[in-house]
Specification:
By secondary structure, the chain is an alpha/beta fold. It contains 17 helices and 19 strands. It has 3 domains: about 1-50; about 100-285, 2-Layer Sandwich (Endonuclease, Chain A); about 295-460, Endonuclease, Chain A (2-Layer Sandwich). It is an enzyme of class 2 (transferase).
Length: about 450
């Protein structure tokens, strides 16, 4: 039996060495398989092997989305201080930077939900909706009613929800949509044992596209907790965005790929991809990341943007556990004189993440970055502004799950006015400053707890 366990552990080790790019992850899995020959190998087979990447590559070869072939850059991007960033992102993503767009900021569900529901009510051709969480509560019921009403009047409706975020065993919203005859798929959801390895991979994107013309993206899920003015039990403040212009086509392409990946149906034609005219002056581009062919792309772009910062970096994220690369780049920026502000919640909705964050944040404080705590309610916004000229918004948190495991979608914008709006919005939440003294005041048991939790931060 011992020889059998050793042989299996060696086989697993060979696979780990050949496939794992991250050294610490590889060492961790190798140690696990040797220390726990049966349980460790089962865990590696369930959670350590990235089967999604291989499937995604096959789908990428098979699925060809419509693309924009004639697009204008916004004036100044090619010659401006972020020209090299724009070039790098274009090569990394394979998507063009498109001009002629307009973006509006929607604060909390109080602003986002009415705008989204109006767009659904006014739909003439198609509605595409993707949400990590889609509750069947009061506001979720309104969305369900609106989608069913649109379906009944002949609008093509497609809904994609995450297999974990919207309920693993029971998903009332999906059930109600199915009952109404609306195609609704659950991303990577299955209770079959051989499908269990996928439960750690989640579609965290929030997308609504109406008629292929108007797009809503950001961090807001569909649930009563986001309607802050109604004082829910556990309120969640957040930011969403309404997009119009050629960039909406890129958002639609992201949904179409996810839908094809999950359901096998190809979305094409003018119902989903109409001709789009310019309606603003902002240059934008969609950026996706996930444990497939888009691995680490959002992280790479953030790193490059921080590298190019000359005066200021402002970051707002609900969870701050980005890993050593981003921590190092923020620290280097602060050391060369860039003003770095990092805004995190005073208390998030995941207390373990807060513990790990407190143990992991020392390097940026040592380098001179300013870390701020936002007062309740818990703020779930994900915003980045660099030099008040470039901004990065969307669904991705600054933690290892979002940067490595989740399927995320962000949008980069090269526009001074919009970046300044994002910058000011982040600044408004600098309520109290976290200092070395605050961290040093923690008792020894608390510091031990936080440091121990930090060790498992890649899996939180």
């Amino acid at each position: 039996m011992m020889l059998c366990h050793l042989a299996v552990a060696i086989i697993a080790t060979v696979h780990i060495v050949l496939t794992k790019r991250d050294t610490s992850a590889a060492i961790g899995w190798i140690s696990t398989t040797f220390m726990m020959p049966v349980a460790g190998i089962c865990l590696y087979m369930m959670f350590g092997i990235n089967r999604v990447r291989r499937l995604a590559r096959r789908l990428a070869c098979r699925h060809v989305s419509p693309v924009i072939t004639t697009l204008n850059y916004a004036s100044g991007v090619e010659e401006g201080s972020f020209a090299s960033l724009a070039k790098m992102v274009g090569k990394l993503t394979g998507r063009p930077l498109v001009g002629g767009n307009r973006i509006d900021i929607l604060i909390d569900g109080d602003s986002a939900y009415p705008a989204m529901l109006r767009a659904i009510a006014d739909a003439r051709v198609s509605i595409l909706l993707c949400s990590y969480i889609f509750r069947n509560d009061n506001i979720g019921g309104k969305f369900l009613d609106a989608l069913i009403a649109a379906h009944d009047r002949g609008i093509v409706v497609r809904v994609l929800v995450d297999g974990i975020g919207s309920g693993y065993f029971f998903c009332p919203s999906a059930r109600r949509l199915h009952t109404a005859g609306i195609p609704c798929c659950r991303f990577l959801h299955s209770i079959l044992p051989w499908r269990m390895p996928f439960i750690n991979l989640r579609n965290h994107r929030k997308i609504l596209i109406v008629d292929g013309v108007a797009g809503f993206i950001g961090g807001i899920n569909i649930g009563d907790e986001n309607f802050v003015s109604r004082r829910p039990e556990n309120p969640v403040s957040d930011v969403h965005f309404c997009l119009k212009g050629p960039v909406v086509r890129q958002v639609t392409e992201v949904f179409a790929r996810d839908w094809s990946f999950t359901c096998g149906e190809e979305l094409s034609g003018s119902d989903y991809f109409p001709l789009l005219s310019e309606c603003g002056g902002q240059a934008m581009r969609v950026v996706t990341s996930g444990p497939d062919t888009d691995l680490e792309k959002i992280e790479f772009i953030i790193l490059q943007a921080f590298t190019q910062a000359k005066s200021s970096i402002r970051v707002m994220t609900p969870y701050f556990l980005p890993g050593s690369r981003i921590l190092t780049e923020l620290s280097l920026a602060a050391l060369r004189g860039v003003i770095v502000d990092i805004v995190i919640p005073q208390a998030s909705n995941h207390v373990i993440m807060d513990w790990a964050c407190r143990a992991d944040i020392h390097p940026v404080l040592d380098a001179g970055c300013r870390v701020w705590l936002a007062n309740p309610p818990f703020n779930h916004a994900k915003l980045i502004s660099v030099d008040r000229s470039w901004s990065f918004i969307g669904s991705s948190n600054l933690d290892m799950r979002s940067l490595r495991l989740n399927f995320e979608m962000n949008v980069e914008c090269y526009d001074v006015d919009f970046a300044s709006e994002v910058d000011d919005l982040i600044a408004q939440h600098r309520d109290s400053r976290l200092t070395h003294h605050d961290l040093d005041e923690r008792s020894l048991p608390v510091r031990l707890r936080d440091s121990a939790v930090r060790l498992i931060s890649p899996y939180l």
